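Workshop exercise sheet. Pairs work together: one partner reads the sequence aloud, the other fills in the structure field after running the prediction. Swap roles for the next sheet.
Pair: D.N. / O.F.
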Amino acid sequence: PSDEQVKALLLAIDRRVQQALREAVRCQTERPEDPAAGQRFRSVARSWRCFGLLIRTAALTGLRISELRALAWDAVDLGAGLLRVRQRADQLGAIGSPKSRAAYRTIMLPASLVADLAAWREECPKGPLNLVFPASNGGLQSDSNLRTRFLQPASADAGLVDARGRPLFAFHAYRHYRVSVLIAAGLSLKEIMAEIGHADSGL
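Structure field:
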């Protein structure tokens, strides 16, 4: 995706957040006897906010979706602005070691992303895995849930779908986006491979 396409997706996600928050306020005003209705919309807004931050993190770090799903708060040093990749989640929901030795890495985070992660930590659903991008119950997000509940509708909202309505860009595309940014910044192939955790030069 281009810079404009990444921005379009993030704007579409933010519109979903704002829409859910407006619905929460409407429920609170029109149905004060049913506070659970408003809470449901606030939970929807929080889930979309989580997804938006996941996409931003993917675009700014090049992490694989398996690494993002398994990312725990103890691997994020907000004070130092560092993120350490130490585990991944497979499609069956098992958390284990990263894909290869090269996938173990430490990434410096831009200040804007550090600020966003710090704010998100305050409202992030809590769970035994202490995940940065968990499901609404604090557990592990499934790959299929992220695709069908979030990526698909957000891509449609942003006009980033093909003639059959399928997203033009899968999660891996945001990893490619990060590579293109690093190339444009003049990093060497070795430096790029180290940042994205690639074992060979077949980027």
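Discussion prompt: The mean pLDDT is 94. What would you look at next?
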